[in-house]
Design a protein that fits this description.
559 residues, alpha/beta, FAD/NAD(P)-binding domain, 2 domains, nine-stranded mixed beta sheet, five-stranded parallel beta sheet, 17 helices, 31% helix, globular, binds 3-acetylpyridine adenine dinucleotide
């Protein structure tokens, strides 16, 4: 590694020796940084920016060849954000906020990747990012009080602070289908879609998965393919995005009062400013009034689940919204049997991530689209020519896996994180993730997780939550520096109390009833635990601020 790459100090032949196998004496040179950040999406880039402000030498490792994280990897046709563009953006630079122009209400992948590149260029971040490099292990060396970080390039560095910014949905999940190796066509996971695209003209295409990704991709794949087979195991609730080109007047108005909008988002429940509805139960109004309220929210889907105060907790109220959405599906899909298959009945609405679409249900009215129910007749095997269910055989040229992610913990486990006493993170969390505030975990000093399990993260507008975490982490590091402290580590009792609280608020909702990736239910063998914090972005921020104001209450600080 060259000095110019680094802004850290190069040490020859000084491998640290006491931290387990991965840290054993190493004959290669290494660089010592103040901080290592893993991931160059919005989280990693903003963390780098803030640490540079503090004067810390920082290295960012990024598996991809470019910045953008989610928006670098998810290039599948139809990929688009589901938070409004004016709110799904970084707020730390008011100049950038004013300069940047979004072309649509809900940005497509290309715009977001372009924005990520703009952030990197505008703030000269690239020189501190090592692309095409995956962290293979990060081991805490108790003797030196430093993290030893190894990469798939065979090199290693050390750092005082180790910060994960690898996203919650970056570890792809391709189910272990029998026969997958025998398939003679092309297959792709949506999150590893080739940058140059895939020409599907004249092809028979099969897609497995009807979550947010599948629901966005299916209308686009149907436009290109000769025939599209959609293999659906579980129907999902999807609402129309009503996406449209950005209205210049709306943009101007919003930009004029950006700080007010941002503050409202920070204090909100899900990190997005949404219309306020009266605080009342869905059961407290007439059918007519309720339907009017639902109709009004249909045009602003983020609001639908906030129209009444008991949709997430009262099965009866929840069912009223669910049936409203099922009716919409029945109105859109011409074949009643297909409509019934597409109408979800096995989980309360909102307990799996609500999907947002552009002409999803209408796509099933096309002659070249076939919906295949793989719940009733599961996929038996992938064959050389396609796929066989227990009822039928399908020949396809291309298979698309929209089969999701090993969410939240997956990206962390893939980094091989080992804390004090040689304890792997995966071992510590074998019964489910245990964190204090979702940002730290006992036994892993000076390690911070941006949008980790136990924080609002995936239940919120990610840019709001990312900025809150990065600011909090940066302040914590500044506090250590100013007070000449060497390390910060969550205390076990504070962590236990936080985990109890995370579980208590989740258990008071209907969320725990669904077999969702929030619960780890999509990955065989993963513990069934509700991973994100559902207590609300605003409340969570307040709690984090209180902890900081009380000299990092619940953390052990050492000199
Ligand atoms: O993944 P998913 P995703 N046989 O896990 C099916 C974010 N996101 O990539 O439900 C057959 O939701 C599985 O079926 P089932 C967003 O947070 C955001 O779609 O397990 N089917 C399901 O249908 C989202 O929630 C945006 O029965 C199998 C699908 O694959 C998250 O990413 C866009 C199967 C996986 O759905 C993940 O969404 C896209 C098998 N063996 C994503 N295994 C926006 O911002 C899995 N499936 C708009």
């Amino acid at each position: 590694m060259s000095q110019s790459q680094a802004n850290g100090h190069v040490y020859e032949n000084q491998g640290t020796t006491n931290a387990q196998d991965a840290v054993e004496a190493d004959s290669t040179s290494h660089v010592e940084y103040d901080a290592v950040v893993v991931g160059a999406g919005f989280a990693g880039m903003y963390q780098l920016y803030r640490l540079r402000e503090l004067g810390l030498s920082t290295r960012v490792f990024e598996t991809g060849e470019g910045v953008g994280g989610t928006w670098y990897w998810n290039r599948y046709p139809g990929a688009r954000v589901d938070s409004p563009s004016m709110q799904y953006s970084l707020s730390f630079s008011s100049e950038m906020e004013q300069e940047w122009k979004w072309s649509e209400d809900y940005s497509p992948q290309a715009d977001l990747e372009g924005y990520a590149n703009h952030v990197a260029d505008r703030f000269n971040l690239r020189e501190h990012i090592q692309f095409g490099t995956s962290v293979t292990s990060a081991v805490y060396d108790e003797k030196s009080g430093r993290w030893i970080i190894r990469t798939d390039r065979g090199d290693w560095v050390s750092a005082k602070y180790f910060i994960t910014a690898a996203g919650c949905l970056s570890a792809t999940n391709v189910p272990n289908f029998k026969g997958i190796d025998t398939f003679e066509g092309q297959w792709y996971h949506t999150s590893r879609w080739p940058a140059e695209g895939v020409d599907l003209t004249g092809k028979r295409v099969g897609i497995i998965g009807t979550g947010s990704t599948g629901i966005q991709a299916i209308p686009k794949l149907a436009e290109q393919a000769d025939h599209l087979y959609v293999f659906q195991r579980t129907a999902n609730y999807s609402l129309p995005s009503n996406n449209k080109p950005m209205d210049p007047e709306f943009e101007r108005d919003w930009k004029e009062s950006y700080p007010v909008h941002r503050q409202r988002a920070r204090e909100s429940v899900v990190g997005v400013e949404v219309p306020a509805y009266p605080d009342r139960s869905a059961l407290s109004v007439s059918d007519e009034e309720r339907n009017e309220v639902f109709e009004s929210a249909w045009g602003n889907y983020i609001a639908l689940l906030s129209t009444f105060n008991d949709i997430a907790i009262n099965p009866e109220s929840n069912e009223l919204v669910a049936e409203f959405v099922r009716d919409k599906i029945r109105q859109k899909v011409k074949d009643p049997a297909v409509a019934e298959l597409l109408a979800p009945t096995d989980h309360p609405i909102g307990t799996k991530r609500i999907c947002i679409d552009t002409h999803y249900y209408e796509t099933y009215n096309r002659d070249n689209v076939t919906l295949v129910d793989v719940k009733t007749n599961p996929i038996e095997t992938i064959t050389p020519k396609g796929l066989r269910t227990t009822a039928d055989e399908f020949e396809v040229d291309v298979l698309v896996f929209a089969t999701g992610f090993d969410a939240m913990t997956g990206p962390l486990y893939r980094m091989g994180i080992v804390g004090k006493g040689g304890l792997p993170l995966q071992k510590k969390w074998e019964a489910g993730p245990r964190t204090y505030l979702g940002v730290s975990t006992a036994g892993f000093p000076n390690m911070f997780m941006i949008t980790g399990p136990g924080s609002p993260s995936v239940l919120s507008n990610m840019t709001t939550s990312i900025e809150q975490h990065v600011d909090w982490i940066t302040d914590a590091i500044k506090y250590l520096q100013e007070n000449e402290l060497e390390s910060v580590e969550a205390k076990v009792d504070a962590e236990d109390a936080w985990v109890d609280h995370v579980n208590e608020v989740a258990n008071a909702t209907l969320y725990v009833k669904a077999n969702s990736w929030y619960m780890g239910a999509n990955i065989p063998g993963k513990p069934r635990v509700f991973m994100p914090y559902i207590g609300g972005v605003g409340n969570y921020r307040q709690k984090c601020d209180e902890v900081a104001a009380n000299n990092y209450e619940g953390f052990a600080l050492s000199q």
